[in-house]
Specification:
The complex is a heterotrimer of chains A (415), B (383) and C (373). Chain B is of the alpha+beta class and 383 residues long. In chain B, 48% of the residues lie in helices and 13% in strands. Chain C folds into 2 domains: 89 residues, no CATH class; 272 residues, no CATH class. In chain C, helix 2 crosses helix 11 and helix 11 packs across helix 13. The chains are: A alpha/beta (415), B alpha+beta (383), C mainly alpha (373).
Chain lengths: 415, 383, 373
């Protein structure tokens, strides 16, 4: 491509030379516009629609674009399929830089246009691909159908056909508009358009009335009968199977061993097999209780469903959900964790506020789950051998699932 | 990279003077790689072509759904569940809605139960067909990829007709669904089943008995029963390791207790078993669908009386069996029309957690096979 | 005296006309030596052009064919928009590649990096010069045809090793190393299968091998040596697929594993060269298969005089390319049907199965020659 770009400078001054340049332009653009090889890249839902578009039903090959290259060095088109997160953005920029020019970017889906469903109260999503890359074509939809992607592809084709080597393709520069609330801006613009339209319509109506004073509309409203539905009772939970312990039995077994175990009596009375009751435990007895329920022959809680936490103003609650694969019953431990009051107010947002023993030795599955809780809540798991942030960068400030978490990138959801 | 300082996450320390150590190097698979099934980065420590240790790095598609849920109304969260595991979006919808129904103490009429079960099973077949395609595709047979997606499109046609959307369905609501199914629903499902019956025979002949597929998947990536339970695996991965656990049987929701179906279980825990379990599940799903077609109530209400979606204060947990495994939704409801916290337990997360244990001593090619049979969906891990 | 040995009608025509035209030159510089050298040079240029035309011309056709075959295997349509049924799609692709930016990524060994795509073209072009496309259509009709082909084939692996090593990318390096191991192993079987043909045909000259297959279909080496010929043909098919790094033996590229293997870091024209070489190798390997097993340029006569009369009316070169395209179609169907074996499985398949079988085949071939031939 390098030499071609010098051609106009040399040829244009020569009589008839510009026709040669025009011809070269035509041929080159024709080739580029009809042979767009996309990069195999996709992060989320849009990627599966992008895949669908290359499959038998839709067949992107008809446009000559089925050659999905896994290496950016051989690709022409970067289809940004799926949400772009702050962690992914540098990787995307690097991929774009690795593509040889001329290269094009097609932003597929609402997330890459504006952040889509993830625009409000979000700390990790880049609001629009144009913040990080120069985008050629936007394809709206969540996710766009394959037909929409083809429309985007053909629009890009049109764009390429209008290029010329007199004004060659060059790298664009991303805009720095990351914190703009595009939804609200668009809504405002839309409202203004609607206002103009309403005014025009009112004018037209008045004009029509003035011109046809004795016009009577033949429109008669049709009444749609609203369907009514009966109120359906929630079915009772299935009976306990043989060998399965009821929630009360489980609680009693634990209570007998651990003094601090308490439970909401009202809930326990109505508890069924599919709605496990949370047994509140003191943090000091947490590890022992987990070990007990795992090894006790009556309980055999060998399967860790999940570890998660809830942030309350004055304390965290760690929820450990266990079940027995063999016997079929579940137990949820709820561990209140007091927030460390000794940490000064200004440092609270960035420091670990509570600690709890890790159950990773008992349940290997807890390893990643506890990392997630650590990452999201800033709870220290004592005894975890690889406590790193899991979803966020290691230099991310704050713990997002705390209720008082703030981030400069967050836009508040309008009420 | 300096070998004296290991990157974060790597643990196995070897004798620095040993000969094998000098040949080791690190390879990054992802975040953009054709066979990581999304934005996942696998840092691999390799000795030649042999994998010594593998550390998954998550978070490249962490979208903060759980934080967003705190400022959304309950209904606004249902489309979020579509975007977690987009291959089984319709199943995730149900998982969330079941938790809401517990909180609202509302039931659904029989017709709706059948609609739910049928759409669940269609979603399961769709997801397993994608697995079939990706398994063949990741082994190098691009044609399988297209075959899997070909039949899936027919399911999407049905889903589109019923829900109005191909992929992100956003269909179920507490007490019912957004719409009733159209009259053409049952005939279309029937026609689809007839079609799938014959094509599945071809597809199975294409992969199941292929010598190269068997060579590459039998005995590869063995996950023992103990490990599968300890690491929290679920769904076909757990069942391929010899654990007979299926939420539909063990904690039946909807009307699964009234339907007749088997839970396919295999005992070797290798890639081939995981593949076979999924193929058998397609057949079981077809069996469930056929029963539903026979019993489908043509008359009767399709939803319960509409109520404002507002949960009674408390904590609600629901779990369902999606195509990938156990999908749990934990809702903490305070007063008001917004959840205090919603947490999702996705099936793919533990599967990636156990990956390091499965790939040690195998090659990159095997890693690709194993990743395909674990069938993870990364946005559901990162949320 | 130096006598060029290019034998074909065009060569004879040139040799005939060069002395006649030389008569118009001043008598002082006329000489037979000069005439023969000039005739040789003209012939050489014509041959180079012919080989380039056959090779480079067939590549876009084959790429188009591959995309269509692939599409129809996968229940798709393939390229449809550019030209009738997308016939000029590959021309757009090639032009686009030529006008793409070419750069070497940071940290590569630039000389070797750009040398590799040139080296990769050597082997297929040289082999093409040895193939008899028609009764009188062969560029270099040399007696050591098959040993030369075996020798030249080694160049392919050199290019891939160079490209993979110089790319400064671990995926490329892995791909190159895989490919090196694979191609060197399969070269042995490849050579042994060709030696089987040499043994039964009694010559290493490709033209002579073709001539031994004149007659009906049952005189082709695939059927002439009962069962043995067929086994040899299948083995040639497998080993040549591995030699060409084509799926299902494309472990060197392995897009799902190594994102493209040795050519991960290549872009623009150098990448196009790798792409081109793959398809030219397809032509030459298919030609070799046709020459050795499928009767070369001979028409598929069936022994009924009336039918044979019609069949032989079609020129040999047409038959040759018809067979070549049939072979290519077979290669393509295999590519889009099977999944890829693992590296170690591929190697053990060669060393533990193909090589012993090949040696047995040679012994059986010797017995056949002793008893029948």
């Amino acid at each position: 491509m390098g030499i071609i770009n010098f051609a106009p400078k040399i040829l244009d001054p020569i009589p008839g030379g510009k026709y040669v340049v025009n011809a070269v332009d035509y041929v080159v653009n024709w080739a580029r516009a009809n042979s767009i090889w996309p990069l195999t890249y996709g992060t989320s839902c849009c990627a599966i629609e992008m895949m669908s578009s290359s499959m038998a039903r839709y067949d992107i090959a008809r446009f000559g674009s089925e050659v999905f290259r896994a290496s950016p060095r051989q690709a022409d088109l970067f289809i940004l399929a799926g949400t772009i997160t702050r962690r992914m953005a540098p990787a995307i920029q690097m991929l774009w830089e690795q593509m040889p020019g001329p290269k094009y970017v097609l932003a597929m889906g609402a997330c890459t246009i504006s952040g889509g469903p993830f625009i409000y109260d979000n700390y990790s999503v880049v609001r629009g691909a144009q913040n990080i890359l120069p985008v050629d074509v936007f394809v709206p939809g969540c996710p766009p159908r394959p037909e929409a992607l083809f429309h985007g592809l053909l629009t890009l084709r049109e764009k390429i056909l209008h290029e010329t080597c007199r004004n060659p393709w060059q790298e664009g520069y991303p805009e720095d508009v990351s914190r703009v609330d595009r939804y609200r801006e668009a809504a405002k613009a839309w409202a203004e358009l609607e206002k103009i339209k309403d005014e025009e319509m009112a004018e037209a109506r008045e004009k029509f009335k003035a011109e046809n004073p004795d016009y009577k509309s033949a429109f008669k409203p049709v009444r749609v009968v609203k369907e009514t539905f009966p109120e359906v009772e929630r079915p009772a939970a299935a009976d306990l199977k043989s060998g399965e312990l009821s929630q009360t039995d489980i609680f009693n077994a634990i209570k007998a061993k651990f003094e601090s175990a308490t439970v909401d009596e009202a809930l326990l009375a109505t508890a069924t097999s599919d709605s496990p009751v949370e047994i509140t435990l003191d943090v000091n007895e947490y590890l022992a209780a987990t070990e007990f329920v795992k090894n006790d022959p009556r309980l055999k809680m060998d399967y860790l469903i999940d570890v998660t936490a809830i942030d309350y103003p004055d304390h965290f609650e760690l929820i450990t959900q266990l079940r027995s694969i063999e016997l079929g019953h579940k137990v949820f431990f709820c561990i209140p964790l007091k927030k460390d009051e000794s940490i000064p107010e200004e440092k609270r947002a960035t420091s670990l506020l509570a600690k709890v023993p890790s159950i990773m030795q008992l349940y290997p599955a807890a390893s990643i789950k506890e990392r997630e809780v650590y990452d999201m809540f800033g709870i220290n798991f004592v005894g975890h051998d690889d406590l790193r942030r899991i979803f966020l960068d290691k230099d991310f400030v704050g713990y997002p699932l705390r209720k008082d978490f703030t981030n400069p990138e967050m836009i508040k959801r309008p009420v | 990279m300096s070998m004296t300082q290991l990157p974060p996450g790597f643990k196995i320390i070897r004798d620095e003077n040993s000969e094998a150590y000098s040949d080791e190097f690190f390879v990054n698979m992802g975040p953009q790689h054709p066979s990581t099934h999304g934005a996942l980065r696998l840092a691999i420590r390799m000795d030649g072509e042999t994998i010594v240790e593998l550390v998954p790095h998550h978070g490249y598609i962490h979208r903060g759904m759980e934080k967003q849920a705190e400022s959304m109304s309950y209904l606004q969260y249902i489309p979020m569940s579509d975007r977690q595991d987009y291959l089984t979006a319709i199943q995730n919808n149900l998982g969330v809605v079941l938790a809401y129904e517990k909180g609202m103490n509302i039931g659904v009429p029989l017709r709706q139960e059948y609609i739910r079960v049928m759409l669940q099973e269609l979603g399961r077949i769709a997801s397993h067909l994608v697995f079939f395609g990706c398994f063949g595709g990741d082994l190098g047979g691009q044609t399988c990829l297209l075959f899997g997606f070909k039949e899936r499109e027919m399911i999407h046609d049905i889903l589109e007709e019923v829900t109005g959307s191909r992929l992100t369905t956003n269909f179920f609501r507490p007490g019912g669904s957004r719409f009733d199914v159209p009259d053409t629903f049952i005939p279309r499902v029937k026609a689809f089943l007839e079609h799938l019956e014959s094509t599945m025979k071809d597809y199975e002949r294409f992969l199941s008995k292929n010598v190269i597929v068997r060579e590459r998947s039998i005995g590869i990536g063995v996950l023992s029963k103990e490990d599968a339970i300890a690491y929290g695996c679920s769904g076909p991965v757990l069942r391929a390791s010899g654990v007979n656990f299926d939420v539909r049987k063990n904690n039946p929701y909807s009307i699964y207790s009234q339907l007749e179906f088997d839970v396919p279980v295999a005992y070797n825990g290798d890639c081939y078993d995981r593949y076979n379990v999924r193929i058998a599940e397609i057949h079981e799903s077809m069996r469930i669908l056929r029963q539903c077609i026979d019993k489908f109530p043509t008359e009767g209400p399709w939803r319960s009386k509409e109520k404002p979606v507002k949960l009674n204060p408390g904590r609600y947990y629901s779990e369902i069996e999606t195509a990938k495994g156990l999908y749990g939704t934990y809702v903490v409801a305070a007063s008001g029309d917004k959840p205090y916290r919603i947490h999702t337990r996705g099936p793919s997360f533990p599967h990636i957690g156990v990956l390091n244990k499965m790939v040690q001593g195998l090659t990159v090619s095997d890693l690709v096979t194993i990743m395909a049979t674990l069938d993870p969906v990364i946005p559901e891990i990162d949320r | 005296m130096f006598v060029p040995s290019i034998t074909n009608p065009v060569g004879d025509f040139v040799r005939e006309w060069v002395p006649k035209l030389a008569e118009y030159l001043p008598a002082s510089i006329q000489s037979d030596t000069l005439n023969s050298i000039v005739a040789f040079l003209i012939n050489a240029v014509i041959c180079v052009i012919a080989v380039c035309l056959v090779n480079i011309g067939s590549a876009p056709i084959l790429i188009y064919m591959e995309r269509k075959v692939c599409a129809h295997v996968q229940c798709r349509l393939g390229p449809m928009r550019l030209g009738w049924h997308g016939t000029i799609q590959t021309i757009a692709d090639v032009l686009k590649m030529l006008f793409k930016e070419v750069y070497a990524p940071a940290g590569v060994d630039k000389f070797v990096f750009f040398l590799a795509p040139l080296v990769v073209l050597i082997a297929p072009f040289m082999v093409a010069a040895l193939i008899p496309f028609g009764e009188n259509l062969v560029v270099a009709d040399i007696d050591m045809g098959i040993p030369l082909i075996i020798a030249i084939n080694g160049f392919g692996v050199l290019a891939i090793l160079l490209g993979g090593w110089s790319s400064n990318n671990k995926y490329s390096l892995l791909g190159a190393l895989r490919s090196g191991a694979q191609m060197i192993s399969y070269e042995i079987s490849f050579a042994l299968v060709l030696l089987f043909v040499v043994m039964v045909a009694g010559s290493t000259n490709l033209m002579a091998i073709t001539q031994t297959q004149s007659g009906t279909v049952f005189d082709w080496w695939i059927f002439k040596a009962p069962v043995l010929g067929f086994i040899a043909f299948i083995m040639f098919f497998i080993t040549s697929t591995a030699e060409m790094n084509r799926a299902p033996f494309d472990i060197a590229e392995a897009e799902q594993e190594l994102t493209g293997g040795y050519h991960t870091e290549y872009n623009g024209t150098p990448f196009a060269m790798f792409y081109l070489a793959e398809y030219i190798a397809l032509v030459t390997n298919s030609s070799l298969a046709v020459t050795c097993f499928l009767g070369g340029f001979h028409a598929p006569c069936i022994g009924i005089a009336a039918v044979d009369g019609i069949l032989t009316m079609v020129p040999g070169v047409v038959w040759f390319f018809a067979k070549v395209f049939f072979m290519i179609w077979c290669y393509m169907m295999v590519r889009w049907t099977f999944v890829r074996p693992r590296v170690d499985q591929l190697m053990s398949f060669e060393w533990k199965f193909l090589l012993p079988l090949n040696l047995l085949l040679l012994v059986a071939g010797a017995a056949y020659v002793a008893l029948v031939g």
